[in-house]
Amino acid sequence: MACPICDGEFEKNLIFKNDKIMVFTAINPIIPGHLQIFPKEHISILEEVPNELLDYMSSVSNKLSMLLFELLKVHGTNMIIQNGVPAGQTIPHFSINIIPRRSDDGLKLEWDMKQTTPESLESMQRIISEGVAQPPEKRIEIEEAPVETISKNLPEKMPVKEEATEETDEEEEPPAEKKINYYLRSLERIP
Amino acid sequence: MPDQKELTEEDLKNMSTEEIAELQKQNCIFCKIVSKDIPAKILHEDSEIICILDINPASEGHILVYPKKHYMILPHIPEEMLAKLFNTVKLMSNTLLTTLQCKGTSVFVANGMAAGQKAPHVLIHVFPRREDDGLLEMPKHEISEEQASKIISTIKPYAAQLLGGKTIAQADSKTKKIKAQEEKISQEEINEEIEKEEKILERTKTHNPKSSSIEKKEDKKTEKKVPEKAVKAKGVDLNDIARLFGG
């Protein structure tokens, strides 16, 4: 399956990698410092992520969130999962977005809060509660069809403008790292 | 509520973070939903986590998943609980996909007011998404190659150490010394910088207690002491984030 993440098209964005996950600077960043955590294995959507891996990814998300607080001196972070094409997922590989936030960064990561009716809430409660109460075996049976549809709906290949990155040794640390303190200082000035 | 009215701004200033946390807890709508003092459409709950319907939804079926215990921000949550929360999020997302026939879901967490957090209780939003609904758009921001590589080189060494890698600060000190001779930077400054790096990592590490089981035990025994302990471990920035919510 053509997946730009598995094909290593974004190796230049790589920040960390182990046998479970990969951390990249975001493929489509909405602000400098925006990070994305991907499972190493090709997994399309949240529903397909094994619980254990999800545990690990949540822990990594929180740690990276803290790291951004400290390193970028931001006042907050957003953690966002775009699960499926309608949710804005453009790469057919599950990821958790970590977005550093400042009160004056001008980002509008919000939605219009809709007014709803007691009747609508009640009917939603009934439908969803019944769904949750389904025994896991039964739920998985029902779930398979939609999950597949979602996976298939994802574009097979993303339009990637960047030229293929040169082959680099992943373990090799770029010389730029040595200048970390200089960069740390200059990064603090990034608006 | 009457207690709060009697409090002046001066009182609030003099209160410890622990006391403010306690006050917030008493007035927290989401805690009152847990204790059933405020009605809500509960979809699912267990001993630690509750899922309710958002009364001002982004889309029909908008769910809030949150811990029953009062945590102000996500970094305060022990890893074990965080894992449970995310697994519940997965369950709810799964349920939305199957029951509402939507083709996608968004999961959203705001950490701190700057990130759009509105209530002083950690909430994870899960809501159904449909084509072109225009909710939660994430427009791409153009970042220069130079800036991008700065970000990578800044975060990379810390991430490696934090998530299991080499000790960059120490391994790097030799190179720094050589470089310092070239650039005529004083030894003191180098040491300072190394210390700074280590400090940052130290602080970041302590945010996530390694043995959450120990923390859990303490939680049960001395619930009141937890905020103080948590705050102490967090370093300064976290307190600021939590304090932004006021009393």
Features:
heterodimer, A: 191 residues, alpha+beta, five-stranded antiparallel beta sheet, 15% strand, globular, B: 247 residues, HIT family, subunit A, 11 helices, 5 strands, 52% helix, 11% strand
Q: Write the CATH homologous superfamily of chain A.
A: HIT-like
Q: Uncertain runs of chain B with pLDDT below 50, 5 residues or more? A: 166-171, 209-238
- Would you tell me which CATH topology of the largest domain in chain B applies? HIT family, subunit A
Shape of chain B: globular
CATH level-1 class of chain A: Alpha Beta
Distance, first to last CA of chain A: 39 Å
| Average pLDDT, all residues of chain A | 78
Q: Give a short account of the largest sheet of chain B.
A: 5 strands, antiparallel
Quick overview of this protein structure:
The complex is a heterodimer of chains A (191) and B (247). By secondary structure, chain A is α+β, with helices and mostly antiparallel strands.
Protein model, in words:
The complex is a heterodimer of chains A (191) and B (247). With 191 residues, chain A is α+β, with helices and mostly antiparallel strands. Chain A has one domain: HIT-like (HIT family, subunit A). Helices cover 34% and strands 15% of the residues of chain A. Chain A has helices spanning 51-72, 118-133, 136-153, 180-187; strands at residues 14-17, 21-25, 35-39, 76-83, 96-101. A five-stranded antiparallel β-sheet of chain A has the order 1-2-3-5-4, covered by helices on one side. The radius of gyration of chain A is 19 Å and the shape is globular. Helices cover 52% and strands 11% of the residues of chain B. Chain B has eleven helices and five strands; from the N terminus they run H-H-H-H-E-E-E-H-E-E-H-H-H-H-H-H. Chain B has helices spanning 2-6, 9-14, 17-26, 29-34, 79-99, 145-162, 168-183, 187-206, 212-221, 226-234, 236-243; strands spanning 42-45, 49-53, 63-67, 104-111, 124-129. The interface between A and B is large, with 98 and 102 residues.
